[in-house]
Specification:
Elements (H helix, E strand, L loop, with lengths): L1 E6 L6 E6 L2 E7 L6 H16 L8 E5 L5 H18 L3 E4 L1 H6 L9 E9 L2 E8 L7 E9 L1 H11 L3 E4 L1 H5 L1 H8 L3 E3 L10 H12 L17 H9 L2
Parallel strand pairs: 1-4, 4-5, 6-9, 9-10
Antiparallel strand pairs: 1-2, 2-3, 6-7, 7-8
Length: 234
């Protein structure tokens, strides 16, 4: 199955074209930028370079969060638009779970996936990736302060890899507090890789995918608008 995958959950997004488990084309943003300004332009160039037409896409995988509110809405709207126009299945994948597959390039069993949630917080989870391609959740996805995250990881006690832009934002603090128990991924290994979405969603897409109308972002945190609205009701 030829799959388009989109991850815009952080400012460093990624787009991939995959044929089953085989990567055909991959774009990963090393520097923060606006997804709405570049997503479809980049997709057009990737399709041309791969020799695919838009109609060759047979399924769409999309990261549904947690992550940037604007990024999530942009990516999900784009993914739904492609799936609707081509009448192909769509599947949503956790952005934290997708990041866990970055650990396959390292020799560690455990991976902490960290996304910078701003306001001094992180979206975080810890995974056992010893069964290649099937991350098992150890610390469930949650919104944590750096202090709470460090305490959870310290209690865990085993050596682990940290990936995601949250690991970039808090690199010095994590290294200082956790010492030799943490290894921060380097280079592109720390950033989202949309091909991971295809690997995680491929079987589900082959079985018909998710209900497009019910597929919504997993924000975890309430938006500022929701907080303001609820505050007015008190």
């Amino acid at each position: 199955m030829k799959i388009l995958s989109i991850d815009t959950t952080s400012m460093r997004g990624s787009i991939a074209l995959s044929d089953g488990a085989t990567l055909v084309a991959l774009d990963r943003q090393e520097e923060p930028s606006s997804h709405s300004e570049r997503l479809f332009g980049k997709l057009d160039s990737m399709l041309a370079e791969s020799g695919w037409g838009i109609s060759d896409i047979e399924g769409v995988a999309v990261a549904i969060g947690p992550g940037s509110f604007t990024g999530l809405r942009t990516g999900l709207a784009a993914a739904k638009g492609v799936a609707l126009s081509l009448e192909v299945p769509i599947a949503g994948v956790s952005s934290l779970k997708s990041l866990a597959l970055n650990g396959d390039d390292y020799s560690l069993k455990y991976v902490a996936t960290l996304i910078d949630a701003r306001r001094g917080e992180l979206y975080a989870a810890l995974w056992d990736i010893s069964a290649r391609g099937f991350p098992a959740e150890i610390i469930s996805e949650s919104l944590l302060s750096p202090e709470a995250l460090i305490e959870k990881l310290r209690q865990f006690g085993s050596h682990f890899l940290a990936v995601g832009d949250g690991a970039i934002a808090y690199r010095d603090r994590l290294s200082a507090e956790l010492g030799d128990s943490i290894q921060i991924a380097d280079g592109m290994g720390i950033l989202p890789n949309a091909h991971n979405l295809a690997l995680l969603a491929g079987e589900r897409l082959s079985s018909g995918g998710d209900d497009l109308k019910k597929l919504v972002p997993n924000y975890i945190r309430q938006s500022d608008a929701e907080i303001g609205f609820l505050g007015k009701g008190k």
